[in-house]
Amino acid sequence: MFSRNQLYKTTATLEGCPNAVTSLSFSAEARFIVATGDFGAKVWDTSNMSEVALPSKVTQREPKQPKRAFQVASWMYFSSKIHVLILGSVRGDIYLLSWSNVESAFQVFRALLPCTPGDQGSQVVAMDVFETVVTNKTGYFVTATLDGHVHLRSLTTAGTQTIFSIQLDKSFNLGPVRFGKTRDVYVFGTIGGGIMCLDRATGEIRESHTRGPVPMGTVIIGRSESLFVAGTGQDFQAYRLQDIVYRQTYTGPGRLIAPISKDIVFAEEETILVGGTDSGMAIVYNTQSGKVIQTLQYPRGGLVQSVASCTLKNTCFIAIAGSILDHPSNILIFKKHRKAPTNISGLISYPNFVKLPKTARPYIRWLIWPVIFAIFYVLTNSYFYEIKSMICAIPSIQTACTLIMFTTRPLPDEFVSPSKAHHAFTPFITAHDDGTVKVSRSSQLHEEYEPSSQFRAEYALVEALSRFHAEYVKASLKGHNDHGVESSTVNAVPRGSRASQTEVASESETIFL
Predict the structure, then answer these.
(1) Is 320 helix (H, G, I), strand (E, B) or coil?
(2) Which of 405, 416, 407, 399 is nearest to 381 (CA)?
(3) Residue 292 contacts by C-beta under 8 Å, 6 or more apart in sequence?
(4) pLDDT for residue 100
(5) Contact 408, 402 (CB under 8 A)
(6) Residue segments in the chain with a per-residue pLDDT below the cut of 70
């Protein structure tokens, strides 16, 4: 079960669409949201949920005109802080509008006429943009028409340029089009399971498959290109894009009226899917498990086929809209606050569907500091006492460091061969029966102090460990007294030999760190 703060909550209801909504789309940073249909296009500013007026060129009139009835819409955002709205009409017209911060209004700066005006086959049925936020001053968008044409265009502040324009065989039944991560274009057939990859420069067919699901009304591709998810009517099915291998089904509610029109979108770094239904709601799925996380109810009921999402650092938005012909439609915006995800950057790989990296648990993070001190001591091989004295007020960390140092400290060279001795100063801790602790370094006594009762208890653990490692200590101290080191009276034995069980240390035991 999910707690209440993990679920989406309704934050706004937008009214004013007189008919079915055919597409929904958020702009960058969820600044605007656009809805399209045979009524034209309507845009709202999400900062105050107010409708933004559009130019008369794209405003629907009575009687309704096909060139102002829009089937699809997409957004781009340029580094010059320009929002660009792209609209594709039933007649085949493509309008590009830019937002003016000065006038607080949209303006049409480019209108692309259909290839064959008056031909119903010019209807724009699908559209995709390579980047919503344009990174290199050049944006790319691709459109598909009912008669099988695919147009790839670039967009800059200077205008648009056609990169390629091709027509596929009518038997392919061209439907959704999507960009790959290298800007190649994937096209999907609505029936027949056809999938093609078109070269980004020439439009030539690089790959072709016929093993896709049937039908494919809507398609989304993961940003890593590891999988795609297609709307197949009642359900949504995930396939591996590389070899078109079935992976998983996201089951719908069961009621089916319009088989190929329901949208599906990724959200929250592609960890969830949001799909429309014919049952008065949208469904939020877990991408990895396929389980239903939440249902987003549409109060008017009926078809809810248009959905959109926008994921920000600390906030996620989902929008759904009614899709019943000849009935007014509302747009519901749902919102969820969240903690910013960690270690998420760029593309996400899907070996077996995405798994978000988990942050370290608190007790693991607390163990990092003793390990850091341990590594530092091993590397420096001396002068550890100065650091140790600064943290001895924290007994638990001091004891952890002492344990780690005692078990991991390598044997110095001067203990192996007296001829190699170079009088490296190594700290020693000496415990006495009166409860005092002495730290000696070479022939100098650095500090003597009265430890707390908690430290005495913890030091007892260290002392027990030192007894267990007695042979190592005895071997380590052989010959070391020749260089003037204060320590307890321990009978040294050659390295590698076994010490006699009767050899014991004096009352003052030295622990070598």
Answers:
(1) strand
(2) 405
(3) 283, 284, 285, 286
(4) 87
(5) no
(6) 1-5, 117-119, 342-366, 376-513
How many Å apart are CA 231 and CA 219, to the nearest integer? 6
What SS3 state is found at 490? coil
487 shares its domain with 417 = yes
Q: Determine the Cα–Cα distance for residues 296 and 299; give it in Å rounded to an integer.
A: 10
Residue 391 domain flag:
yes
pLDDT score for 62 = 80
Both 465 and 324 in one domain: the answer is no
Q: Which uninterrupted H or E stretch holds 318?
A: strand 315-321
Do 333 and 10 contact (CB within 8 A), yes or no? yes
Do residues 469 and 322 both lie within one domain?
Answer: no
Place of tokens 């679920």: 7
Q: Does the residue 175 lie in any domain?
A: yes
What does each C-alpha distance from 342 to 33, 71, 316, 339 come to in angstroms?
Answer: 28, 37, 16, 9
Residues 6+ apart with CB under 8 A from 426: 381, 382, 412, 441, 442, 485, 512, 513
Cβ atoms of residues 336 and 316 within 8 Å: yes
Name the β-bridge partners of 44. 33, 51
Sheet holding 185-189, edge to edge: 174-179, 185-189, 195-198, 205-209
Tokens 């949920």 belong to which residue? 49
Examine the domain organization and report whether 142 and 208 are in the same domain. yes
Does 372 lie in the same domain as 486?
yes
Host domain of residue 165: 7-337
Q: Which helix (H) or strand (E) holds 391?
A: helix 384-391
In 3D space, the residue among 243, 207, 238 whose CA is nearest the CA of residue 220 turns out to be 238
Adjacent-strand bridge partners of 169: none
Tell me what pLDDT residue 71 has.
94
Number of domains, the chain: 2
Same domain for 398 and 296: no
Dihedral sign for Cα 485, 490, 493, 499, please: negative
**Most distant CA pair in the chain, distance:** 110
Of 209, 210, 208, 303, nearest to 252 by C-alpha is 303
Cis peptide before 215 (omega within 30 of 0): yes
For the chain, the first-to-last Cα distance in angstroms comes to 51
- Whole-number pLDDT of residue 424: 37
Give the list of residues 6+ apart from residue 151 with CB closer than 8 angstroms, or none: 142, 143, 144, 145, 162, 164, 165
Q: Scan for tokens 């008919």, then name that residue.
A: 19
> Which residues lie across from 318 on neighbouring strands?
309, 334
Q: How many C-beta neighbours within 10 Å does residue 106 have?
A: 23
**Residue 295 and residue 410 in one domain:** no
Cα–Cα distance for residue pair 12/19, rounded to 1 Å:
19
In whole angstroms, give the CA distance from residue 323 to residue 263. 11
Tell me whether residue 355 is in a domain.
no
If 0-12 CB within 10 Å is exposed, 13-18 middle and 19+ buried, where does residue 152 land? buried
Contact 212, 243 (CB under 8 A): no
- What is the CATH number for 132? 2.130.10.10
